[in-house]
Write a structure and sequence with these properties.
about 600 residues; mainly beta; Immunoglobulin-like; 5-stranded mixed sheet
């Protein structure tokens, strides 16, 4: 896996934005109302500090702050800014009532926030049930009305959701990843965004409450495009579903003629990936995968160079339906897919952009489409990149290292939306300062998960939330413990009486052992096998109790040991069992 050195990349805290700006979505304080209606060069977002995440929608933007609050700016006709009004603004304003968010996501006309306790809040347009509150335009409207469209101008809780670890909002629908590795979706289902491979047949084209996505198991992160969704699994492979008219699902095929239901597929595997993936990003009709090696692969629509492979595909579907390399990139730390463009953050804090550029979203100061990555001018010391439909953003400031290691006698993987997928012994990734990274553990078949230790602790808890206010380490334990070690042993022999000395009680021998084991250990068990006593002449031999393990803690002390050969054993325990190979130390007491 790709690892990064510890420590901060840069000082300060700021955000840069460029691209489409007719509604002030870049947040520079002034909507662009002439020329390209855009900002061609990266410009600071006005009044924004301590942001840990930025998410762009079609014409509005959300920022998550280190204290768990959220601000928003841009177009607001459906209440998507969440401040109780429908008035647009070109500078950040607070979203009402949110104080403990750990992630945000913006769509075309609605917004989502994931709270620290695993609940989801939604606000904005509800025309297709994308708020998930069980009340859409097709079932009575509500909760409010913005113009003639159902909406909510303030955040409302999505009913029936808990233990959510990732959220995605896109074109009139929403999706969430749960702590058990399954996915749910709600809202518009015209192109099978619910994963049902059916889409619209008759009547309502929406689902107004969360429904399980069939065939998705063991997912670590998700990303939603306009009508398709990608799920990254713990083994570094990808499952995708939804519209596939442009090959964006990545299974090597294209649905060019309308079947009885839709141009869509249910959950299918993405083939042709050259290495395990650690992050996925879905654009409108294309997809990106960041590999563990730091390279990028892309597939789907490519008429504007959004695949970054040096070409603009013409004829037929104008697409590439299977993964191929993005040209000239290595050591990529993070990636983002816009509507028809892409961004990559390199390990040195600089940014590359490519694809559709009519609104300046590539960031090279022009409006020329770029079929392969080019440097984004004026951006350095970045800790993350993100995109809207036609806008681009970079967080500027310090970043932190999250290191993950695996322990125990079982097997499994740990991963999360931030770009860590760890099926190996150890791996690491970087996060913007103070961002909350959410990890989940996925045991392999036949194994089990014992718990997390380190930056987050929990016995049998499969999810871990880590605030990256410093470099952090986390250990995930699969199966029973493995690797119990005696770290220190001290044997103190009894004293010998000198010849002719006045006889006194001799101090008996003593032994002290200190021990440890990696991972989520709940207890230790010790056993001391003592020498057999000398038998006195007797008609029958005395019965001797068989040695057995009993609960103990480090250090374990034994006193009044008599002469002979001993064997000390210790094994660690967790909720799944005991270490199959106890640590052993043999010793001898001479007197």
């Amino acid at each position: 896996m790709l690892t990064f050195s510890a420590g901060a990349q840069a000082a300060g805290s700021a955000a840069m934005a460029w691209g489409s700006n007719p509604y002030g979505e870049t947040g520079n304080g002034t909507p662009s109302n002439a020329g390209c209606f855009c900002v061609l060069a990266p410009t600071p977002v006005s009044g924004l500090s301590d942001a840990t995440q930025i998410s762009g929608g079609d014409r509005h933007t959300l920022a998550l702050h280190a204290d768990g609050t959220v601000t928003a700016w841009g177009e607001n006709s459906a209440g998507q800014l969440g401040n109780g009004t429908t008035t647009e603004t070109a500078t950040p304003v607070p979203v009402s009532g949110i104080t403990n968010a750990v992630a945000v996501d913006a769509s075309n006309r609605h917004s989502l926030a994931l709270l620290a306790d695993g609940r989801v809040m939604a606000w904005g347009d509800n025309l297709s049930g994308e708020l998930g509150v069980g009340s859409s335009n097709f079932s009575g409207g509500g909760p409010e009305t913005c113009g003639s469209s159902p909406c909510s101008k303030v955040p409302v809780q999505v009913p029936g959701l808990s233990d959510v670890v990732a959220i995605q909002a896109d074109y009139y629908y929403s999706a969430a990843l749960l702590g058990n590795g399954t996915a749910v979706a709600w809202g518009n289902d015209y192109y099978g965004q619910m994963g049902d491979a059916i889409g619209v047949q008759t009547g309502c084209e929406c689902q107004d409450h969360p429904l399980p996505v069939p065939g998705v198991l063991g997912a670590m992160s998700i990303s939603a495009g306009e009508d398709h969704v990608l799920a990254l699994l713990g083994n570094g492979t990808i499952t995708a579903w939804g519209e596939n008219a442009e090959g964006q699902v990545g299974n090597g095929s294209v649905i060019e003629t309308t079947p009885p239901a839709c141009y869509c597929v249910g959950a299918v595997g993405v083939g042709g990936l050259s290495a395990p993936v650690r992050r996925v990003e879905a654009g409108d009709y294309h997809s990106l995968a960041l590999l563990g090696s730091g390279a990028l692969q892309a597939w789907g629509f490519n008429a504007d160079g959004e695949l970054g492979n040096g070409a603009m595909t013409t004829g037929g579907c104008e697409c590439v339906p299977a993964p191929g390399a993005v040209a000239g990139l290595s050591g990529v730390q993070s990636v983002a897919a816009g509507g028809y463009h892409g961004l990559a953050l390199l390990g040195d804090g600089t940014v590359r952009g490519w694809g559709y550029n009519t609104n300046g979203q590539v960031g090279d100061g022009t409006q020329t489409r770029r079929s392969e990555p080019v440097p984004v001018g004026g951006v350095s010391g970045a800790s993350d990149v993100s995109t809207g439909e036609s806008t681009s953003f970079a967080l500027i400031g310090p970043s932190r290292t999250l290191a993950v290691s695996l322990a125990g006698a079982g097997t499994g993987a740990v991963g999360g939306p931030g770009g860590i997928i760890c099926p190996a012994v150890s791996c690491a990734g970087r996060s913007p300062d103070s961002r909350v990274e959410i990890l989940r553990a996925e045991p392999a078949p036949g194994s089990g998960f014992a718990g997390f230790t380190g930056a987050c602790t929990g016995t049998g808890t499969g999810t871990c939330r880590v605030s990256m206010d410093a470099d952090k380490t986390v250990t995930a334990t699969f199966g029973p413990p493995k690797g119990t070690t005696i770290v220190k042993a001290k044997i103190k022999q009894g004293k010998r009486l000198k010849k002719g000395a006045k006889r006194k009680p001799r101090p008996k021998a003593r032994a002290t052992f200190s021990f440890s084991a990696p991972g989520a250990v709940t207890d230790y068990q010790c056993m001391l096998i003592r020498p057999k006593p000398r038998r006195k002449k007797a008609r029958s031999a005395p019965t001797r109790r068989k040695p057995s393990f009993s609960s103990c803690s480090s250090p374990k002390r034994y006193k009044k040991l008599r002469k002979g050969r001993y064997r000390f054993s210790v094994r660690a325990l967790n909720i799944l069992g005991a270490d199959a190979q106890p640590a052993v130390r043999k010793f001898r007491v001479r007197r």
